[in-house]
Amino acid sequence: MYRRFSLSITLAGLVLLALCSVSTRVVLGAGGFIEGTIKAAGLASNSDAVVYIVQMTGTFPAPAKPADIDQRSMQFAPHVLPIVAGTTVRFLNSDPTPHNVFSPDHEKYNLGTWPQGQTKDHVFTKCAKAPCVYVQLCRVHPEMEGYVVELQNPFFAISGKDGHYRIDNVPPGSYSLGVWHAKLKALPKPVIVDGAKPSVVDFVLGH
Amino acid sequence: MESRTRASACGVLLLVGLGFVARPATSGGQRTTAAEITPVEGPSTLHHLRLAIEGSTMGWAGQWSPPPSLVSPARSRTDNTARGSFVLSGADLYRISCRACHKADGSGAPPEINSLIGPVQAASVPWMTQRLKAMGRPAGPAFIRQLTSGTEADLRKRLKVGGHNMPSFGHLSDGEIAVLRPYLDQMAGVPVTRGQPRTVTEPSARVGELIVKGTCHICHDATGPSNRPPTTVLNDIIPALASMPHEKTFYQFVQKVREGAPIPLSASGVMSRGRMPVFNYLNESEIAAAYSYLTIYPPK
């Protein structure tokens, strides 16, 4: 009796799991994904390249939740932060020493200096033509450097150490795929997303 | 032995006499700085931060005392160690106030002690202008000045009120900071602002005060246990500043600070070099001034 009951529970669980799996596939099926590999020529790491769809029709609201940059161990973490226009970036100081954030790019800003545990917000709304790259500097510690890359739409990804990137849920269409790196560059590439199969685009970055 | 004791006593009397001559206001002696000389007070920086001397690089001058076998007994000096006043340059002020933590080149000991080179560079208009230009991000003079003036204000605030671990150096006068500041620029390799004073003339007791507050007080409490070897060293106790003029002759004090002096660990004559580094970058006249200051202005 107990064994039969237990078997029923297991079967019900499997059915539920299968349903969930189908449901997820249906949602993902609304768009395709773009993936590929970045090769940063001459650099030890292939990470921190931003791959993005240059222009997409429509308007894209900024996320309600701020994106975070942590000033920790005398570094900006993440080192590169891609955002969609209008996003608020929250800068946290996790170091016991005061930090500052400023950028000499575009409209230029200087957020002042604040101590450990405190944050300052900055809203990125003034980018005239995306992508807008803002170097993040600390005037107290000149060795610190990070980047905020402001983009027109939220279809972007950042490469990992192995160079792999993946942009999910991309609406079907033909696009220009751009790539940004702090030290290297490459020309944009065309990409077609049809939702049926992955679109693979690799980049080799150079000087 | 008798002559040594007499020599020590004479040394102390000479120093105390000079110290009183240099004492401001009440002595009627010549003063060239506006700073009021006050006794060193309260717990050491290490004590305040609850740090053990072995776990911190604060106050580490960079060199241990030599092995006991290489240290000769303290002796009377015949050189001109005691002075009425000193002419201090920015390098001298850095040496007696900052070097014990930030090292001779300002690099500090990250992550515990920050380098001061970066912040000093970032306070320089020419340096910041050149840096942003080299990054391919040139900025106008107004934006540069906004950045550098903020950094300068931060630097001066840090000096006055201290930081996370850094103690306050609020005892430094504006005149002393005016002489010290261009030296920091020189160390950081940025153009030095012209028109700043290059030296400041200080009474002996003031020099002693700067050394004691800027160097000795990092590890030594103002008051507390006196030196009772071997109990002190075996129990990780750092003797208080107040006890020093009573326990050491002037010559012993100078030797301990500049060259190191062995500490007896047992009645059978086992000696230790102790935990105190040697501060051989302080000259005998300066250490004499510190001894004099501790005598005239008893720590509180």
Helix/strand structural class of chain B: mainly alpha
What does the oligomeric state look like here? heterodimer
Mean pLDDT of chain B equals 83
Q: How many strands in all of chain B?
A: 4
Helix run count of chain B: 13
Number of strands of chain A: 17
Low-confidence stretches of chain A: 5-29
Strand order of the largest sheet of chain B: 1-2
Helix percentage of chain B:
40-55%
What structural class should be given to the helix and strand makeup of chain A?
Answer: mainly beta
Stated plainly, the CATH topology of the largest domain in chain A is called Immunoglobulin-like
Give the second-level CATH assignment, the architecture of the largest domain in chain A: Sandwich
Mean pLDDT of chain A: 87
The tally of helices of chain A reads 1
CATH class of the largest domain in chain A: Mainly Beta
Low-confidence stretches of chain B: 1-31
Radius of gyration of chain B: 21 Å
Distance between the termini of chain B: 33 Å
Approximate shape of chain B: elongated
User: What value does the Rg of chain A take, in angstroms?
Assistant: 21 Å
